[in-house]
Amino acid sequence: MIAFRTTVLIALIAYSSARPSDEWEPEGHSHSEHTKPYHVTVIKKIGVPVPHPVAVSVPQYVKIPIPQPYPVHVTVEQPIHVPVYKVVHQVVEKPVPYTVEKPVPYEVEKPYPVEVEKKVEVPIPKPYPVHVPVYKHIYHHKGGKH
């Protein structure tokens, strides 16, 4: 890396010094070139770079032993799963309806004769003529087929 930097720096200095002179100007051109000094910092490193180890993540697998059944000389009773259902009674209080007897004084209406008139004359107003103007220049109905 250091050799590459120094090579680039030397090539840059050689290129900047190999430009044509300031007095040279081709015919028909009337421009002038201006140059500004540019400060280049040179860092000098002494010694050989030491490569440092880079941490690489390695997956760590943890093996957990799973117990497996194996044959034995003694018979071992295996537990049998039996579902247990339990009925829980909930007490719900419901009000019981009962009759209440209270003496309420009320009057009993006795029947009396009622006369019903079946024919009642209702006055009906008679129609009367109303003047409706009819304009001949206005079409009141659509012409043609309906």
From TrEMBL:
Record key words, sorted: Signal
Secretion signal span: 1-18
Top-level division of the source organism's lineage: Eukaryota
PANTHER family assigned to the protein according to its UniProt record, in alphabetical order: HDC01644, LD27203P-RELATED
Protein name: Uncharacterized protein LOC113402814
Protein source organism: Vanessa tameamea (Kamehameha butterfly)
